[in-house]
Design brief:
Blueprint lengths: L1 E4 L4 E9 L3 E8 L24 E6 L4 H12 L4 E5 L6 H12 L13 E7 L5 E8 L7 H5 L2 H5 L4 E5 L11 E9 L5 E9 L1
Parallel strand pairs: 5-8, 5-9, 7-8
Antiparallel strand pairs: 1-2, 2-3, 3-4, 4-10, 6-7, 9-10
Length: 198
């Protein structure tokens, strides 16, 4: 663990070993949330509380489950999550990993033509709860989101995962989680996540 202190910002980088020789890299930017809330081992609790402003994860297909877990710990209170990235960056694959983490048993696939898929899982209270999965790649007009009834899901209390959010960014709520995926290599992906409040 290395602490790098500058005039304005303290950074902490922790490399956690996963799946043998695979590694997951976490980068947190300062000020006041304990490390344990990010799902790190007890031995990695910081001497001083930190605030997570941005989460950066490197992952592969072998470590995507752990990446989903870290992402969930970082932002589980946020209900609308957007996933941006080039075609093939792994948006749907990451959403499928998040759905498995929640306990969704249904097959997860990108609703490219239907625009919206709805899955179900059992929440902590033992009740069935929906998860909404949207794909806006084929949107011609943001009004299609409203006409399809997706605006109601975006303003609700359930998880809503949106691929290609840039097609109708004006429809998004004031507060949401922004996730950007990029391709590092054929097998590696990099995830940047941060909370947006407009």
């Amino acid at each position: 663990m290395n602490n790098i202190i500058s005039e304005n910002t303290q950074y902490l980088r922790k490399t956690a070993s996963l799946a043998g020789n695979r590694y997951l890299h976490l980068l947190y930017h300062s000020l006041d949330t304990p490390a344990v809330s990010a799902g790190l081992p007890d031995s990695c609790i910081f001497a001083e509380p930190m605030k997570q402003e941005e989460l950066i994860l490197d992952f592969t297909s072998a470590t995507i489950g752990e990446a989903a877990h870290q992402l969930y710990r970082y932002a589980h209170q946020q209900r609308v999550w957007t996933f941006a990235g080039e075609m093939g960056a792994g948006k749907t694959t990451l959403i499928a990993a998040l759905c498995r983490l929640l306990g969704v048993k249904d097959p997860v696939s990108s609703p490219t033509y239907a625009l919206l898929n709805e899955y179900r899982y059992i929440n902590e209270a033992g009740m069935q709860e929906p998860v909404f999965h949207m794909d806006w790649y084929r949107l011609k007009d943001p009004a299609e989101v409203i006409n399809a009834g997706m605006e109601e899901a975006l303003s609700g209390e359930h998880y809503c995962f949106v691929e290609w959010p840039e097609r109708a960014v004006e429809i998004l709520p004031r507060a949401y989680l922004q996730i950007r995926l990029s391709v590092r290599s054929e097998t590696e992906r990099v995830l940047h996540a941060r909370h947006i409040l407009l």
